Amino acid sequence: MLKQFIEALGKVGGQAAEVATVREAAAYIAGHVTGTLLLPSQPSLERVALAVELETAGVKVIKESWREHAASANAGVTGVNFALADTGTVVLDSTVEAVRLATTLPELHFALLDPGKILVDSLAAIPYLRGFHERAPRNYLAYITGPSRTADIERVLTIGVHGPRQLHVLLLPGLSTDYYEL
Predict the structure, then answer these.
(1) Which residues of 47-72 are buried (b: 16+ CB within 10 A; e: fewer)?
(2) Among 46, 77, 103, 166, which residue is least crowded by beta carbons within 10 Å?
(3) 176: in domain
């Protein structure tokens, strides 16, 4: 499923990078970020000390006052609850405003995904979707398939009008096996 996910993500304009460690993930992100980076509070990313690794790699990380900094941030980083191999889609609980800001306003979105959380398709996601609804009936789940795109302007496909111009999915084994944890 990993190969299928990477191929499908590429077809929709996203980029996948397999990384072995958090330090490699931070170095990859640092190599693409030219300004500030929004990093919402997320258990899996805190557990692996991503903020420390990013700062060590020279990235200016915004860890609070996200609304104040979101419009000028160059990038956002989030975890991923699970992904769909057939479409290259990442799915994440974006109920928390900081997560929504990090995935919609900056030009770059880096999504860290444990490859063990790649599902075959949306039918395989149904039990997890039910679980989200049982835990919190009023939550936001974002399905992100590649960079933001629209064709509502004279029917011409435009990238990055309503969200990030680039989506980078960093595949980090051992990040989190919990489908309900970002």
Answers:
(1) ebebbebbbebebebbbeebeebbee
(2) 46
(3) no
**162 to 25, 42, 96, 104: CA distances (angstroms):** 26, 24, 19, 7
CA distance 115 to 102: 22
Give me the domain span that covers residue 34: 2-171
Distance CA 163, CA 106 (A): 7
3-state helix vs strand vs coil in the chain, percent to 5: 35, 25, 40
Total domain count for the chain?
A: 1
Residue 10 and residue 88 in contact, taking contact as beta carbons nearer than 8 Å: yes
Distance linking the first and last C-alpha atoms of the chain = 20
* In a domain? residue 181: no
Confirm whether 149 is domain-assigned: yes
CATH number reported for the structural domain that contains residue 145 in this entry: 3.40.50.10420
Angle 91-29-81 from CA coordinates, rounded to 5°: 15
pTM value? Answer: 0.91
- Classify residue 177: in a domain, yes or no: no
Could you tell me the pLDDT band of residue 109, with boundaries at 50, 70 and 90? Answer: very high
